[in-house]
């Protein structure tokens, strides 16, 4: 039986097997065999070519009647469930008396399946003639039934087949709804949603039932009640009740998936009812107690959108407590969580500068954090706060100088040095800044050459004078990454230069410089130059100024000497060398104009960058507040002229909210017919006997194909089936069933396809049917349906640090040439933004001017949480050159789908060619990159 069922499911017919099964399987008393027999009977063909029931099915009817009267409850139950899947009236009609007898059986398992069988029979095309009084019988059963499952099935039958009776029963027992079982309550909520969609004026009396179910013991019922309440009512009381319910579920449920779903619902409420959600911000913030990072990230995203001057102090206090908890080190991802908290506090301080004083000193303790990303976020936060809060500058500078020696990351050191160079204004601050840098650099020079002929005492003196000693030894790298020395014989009078890196007790700047980080050395030189220039303004003693200049020049010359020596494996780069040399020339010969540029222009540029950043955020907030307008001929319903007799406070609030929505045009669905027509795809040719076209609807995680099939012949088409297959990360949910298509008639066939990643997919297939005059099946091949991944990508915003981190992960490459006739840089940038559906992160001021060079960062995010990055660099050239572009696809561990990163290098010529070099993690299909070829 199992093999026969598998063959039938794979398309075999096996007509010769039917009589054998009737003879030997039908009499069996084994329950497993009887279950397999019903599965077999479900999938075999029961009708002939003309749609009439096969004569041998009469043998089956007698067996089904015997099963419906069998003394074993299991046999009766599975037979009743089998009848729910039969569509042939000739087979079902003789069995109706036996089905009705089972409605009064003593066992609830049989009664509940008998009710479902009655419902399925009544829903057949001629079912209302076979069971004329079915609703009345089921209503009587519902009134006397005690089993919760059977009661739910009875109410479901009335809901689907006699909605008026279901509504009447609900309103009659409205006071007892809270006492019903969970299954029945779920059907009640579904009935309420259906009734209120068809008649919104009736929702007042049903909302009372929903609110009463908010106190149900079942969490599933509570969740559905909250969702139903939000969909039916806009009254503040209803929205507040739903939001409170979601918050309770968020804190009471231990399943992370449930929490993520509830957070999504709270985020939707936040977007449409922000004023109500503001009062519940502390309840939402309690979800940070979950150890899951995704839950914490979503919680922080919601909270940051709900911050107001009233609750900012409470929110920041809670975030500070969470930051302190991350110092315990008990959890693995404390560093990443701390980074999220620092970014959240940063956002709070930018929106409300008055709270910065309460958090900035706490966060500065993490400048030496082992998690470099957290330390970078802290120093960037300090850099913005010290500019926006002049009152905090003295305390921040003092704290920064005290903690500077703890910093171990080069990026953090660079930003901290810039802050010291720009905001040390007083004499004491400038002197402290210079002293701190000198202390962190250690004793000079950075290396020395020791002569072998010198006596031992002089060598010891040199070693004591320098933290880095050089002798006739060469370096050896230890397991922890530090350097040690080993003896080496030398035939020359002098040993080659070598060095030993200091321990952790030595200066952090010195340790970083000796690893070859000369970009940091250039930053140190610039910071010293600024401090010395400012010292000339605030120090009355020229002797002290000259002494400071001398020390600064000595440090810079020592760095250049270290960079050009053979001590390090790679010499100083040209950019850093030029920068340090410029600082030396400035200290030797400075003018007023140069001082103005170094001491004022840098900060002015930073202030301009901050102002543009705030302006962009303000514009984004304005863009989100889309205002829809009502039509001039819309019906005006005057709320104050209505009769309020018998209306509750909730109904009154709901009426007001509906009037406001109608006045602002929120009820208007802005559907673009032209866009809908663009989504209709022709699947067959006009000369094919069967014409088919599909309307493609792309949702977040699934695709719905609404296929219209038209029979253009004069014959009836039997067993017409739409066979589909997919390529890529697409999956067909269910196989469409077979249909019979009359001459010149049409049929709507729907197919659901699940999407698991942001990747270009292809749907292909054919239509198979049988004609009455043709013995074999006819196949019509369909055109391919290409799913555009641009439907899953939307513009988004990310920080520069996050952009650089994702941009750094590239692998593999290929090339594709693309031609364009666009010559203007900005025009091409706008074209890229429009074509790839991305957002430009670069400030508009940075794109101004006609210098012949343009660089911009673009960013977007997919519905699956993936990041799409574009960095476009374009330069003008008079000669004909190829254009290089890099497309990088990289895949973080927490995502299932690829991430698209594009890098453009553009040179305008008479004929411009773009070359794409995609980078992949793993051997993946190159087709996914073609969505960028629209440019």
TrEMBL record:
GO biological process: endoplasmic reticulum to Golgi vesicle-mediated transport; intra-Golgi vesicle-mediated transport; intracellular protein transport
Pfam families according to UniProt: Adaptin_N (PF01602), Coatamer_beta_C (PF07718), Coatomer_b_Cpla (PF14806)
Domain named Coatomer beta subunit appendage platform: residues: 776-871
Domain Clathrin/coatomer adaptor adaptin-like N-terminal, residue spans: 1-430
Limits of the Coatomer beta subunit C-terminal domain: 632-770
Keywords: Cytoplasm, Cytoplasmic vesicle, ER-Golgi transport, Golgi apparatus, Membrane, Protein transport, Repeat, Transport
Keyword Isomerase: no
Molecular function terms, GO-annotated: structural molecule activity
Superkingdom, taxonomy of origin: Eukaryota
UniProt membrane topology term: Peripheral membrane protein
Summary of subunit composition and partner proteins: Oligomeric complex that consists of at least the alpha, beta, beta', gamma, delta, epsilon and zeta subunits.
Function, as annotated: The coatomer is a cytosolic protein complex that binds to dilysine motifs and reversibly associates with Golgi non-clathrin-coated vesicles, which further mediate biosynthetic protein transport from the ER, via the Golgi up to the trans Golgi network. Coatomer complex is required for budding from Golgi membranes, and is essential for the retrograde Golgi-to-ER transport of dilysine-tagged proteins.
The name this protein goes by in its record: Coatomer subunit beta
